[in-house]
Design brief:
Distance between the termini: 63 Å
Largest sheet: 2 strands, antiparallel
Shape: globular
Number of domains: 2
Number of strands: 4
CATH superfamily of the largest domain: Cytochrome c-like domain
Number of helices: 12
Helix content: 40-55%
Structural class: mainly alpha
Order of helices and strands: HHHHEEHHHEEHHHHH
Strand order of the largest sheet: 1-2
Radius of gyration: 21 Å
Oligomer: single chain
Bound molecules: heme C
CATH class of the largest domain: Mainly Alpha
């Protein structure tokens, strides 16, 4: 009996020290291999200069933003999310005279082939899990997501969602809503539902500057019921298999 208790005690201690060290590993990796580019402390840029000097997305509120499963997957196989990079002004031309009549597009145009494939730190599965755990603990903006819940009774079809995004609110002037279709100012949004927590999307789309005071996403005054529809649509859209058709 005593032996058995001791055995259990040892197992418990081992298990807790193992998880503590995975946690430490994640934090150590962040400090050693990520902090050079990513802000892990905050606050977000408060001046235009700081905004354009930012070379990588802020990660200090990662726990309020990302879906853990996506982090683990992406960190092992990073691919571009912002089609014109983080400093999109360096890569796009959005002045009206350059909105080419040739292809009839009304949104941003890339300055030629300026973008190379994303080169990014790549982690092993163990490292990615440890880093994801450490990132998910960074939650300084619980206040901004408090009480935000996706109402799935407000779900809409892909067609209805596209009309909202394309026509009603014009989100595609800045965001790609499928590979190669849409603007180059923000992140691609056809994968947003896989990457981001619904509560974050609800909050960010309503007031982007609560998260990032100088960011070039305007408050487009989405009506509350449309906000729910848009986020339901983004979740649905992210389940499409774009590789199949492109
Ligand atoms: C040399 C600079 C650099 C380093 C070092 C770096 N990253 Fe990144 N990271 C970037 C850039 C640039 C992007 C934006 C890619 C895009 O949007 O296409 C990015 C994107 C990300 C994203 C997605 C963020 C978002 O908001 O979409 C995560 C998560 C991330 N990096 C984690 C890490 C981790 C963890 C490490 C360390 C193991 C790391 N990065 C090291 C430059 C860097
Ligand atoms: C004037 C350009 C512009 C318009 C219009 C715009 N956005 Fe954005 N959006 C941005 C920028 C810039 C970011 C920040 C991207 C980043 O983190 O680097 C952003 C970020 C986002 C994000 C979170 C960032 C991420 O990682 O994916 C979501 C979701 C989003 N926008 C959805 C929308 C929706 C929905 C609309 C329409 C209702 C919209 N946006 C309209 C420019 C725009």
């Amino acid at each position: 009996m005593i032996k058995r208790l001791l055995f259990l005690l040892v197992i418990t201690l081992l298990a807790s020290s193992a998880s503590a060290s995975a946690d430490e590993d994640g934090k150590a990796i962040l400090q050693q291999r990520c902090v050079e580019c990513h802000d892990l402390k905050g606050p977000a840029p408060t001046t235009i200069r700081e905004l354009w000097e930012r070379d990588a997305p802020d990660l200090f509120y990662a726990g309020n933003k990302f879906r853990r499963e996506w982090l683990v997957e992406w960190l092992q196989k990073p691919v571009r999310i912002r089609p014109a990079g983080v400093n999109y002004l360096r890569a796009i031309n959005s002045t009206p005279q350059h909105q080419t009549k040739k292809n009839g597009r009304q949104y941003d145009v890339l300055w030629g082939a300026v973008l190379k494939p994303l080169r990014h730190e790549t982690l092993t599965s163990d490292e990615a899990n440890a880093v994801a755990d450490a990132l998910m603990q960074l939650k300084p903006h619980d206040d901004l997501v408090a009480g935000r819940v996706l109402d799935t009774s407000m779900s809409i079809t892909l067609d209805q969602g596209e009309i909202l995004i394309d026509k009603v609110y014009g989100c595609q002037s800045c965001h790609q809503i499928e590979p190669g279709y849409g603007g180059y100012t923000g992140a691609e949004i056809y994968t947003a539902g896989r990457r981001l927590q619904p509560a974050f999307m609800l909050s960010y789309i309503e007031r982007p500057r609560n998260w990032d005071p100088k960011i070039w996403m305007p408050n487009v005054h989405v009506k509350p019921e449309d906000l729910q529809k848009i986020v339901n649509y983004l979740v649905l859209l992210s389940k499409e298999d774009f590789n199949a058709s492109h």
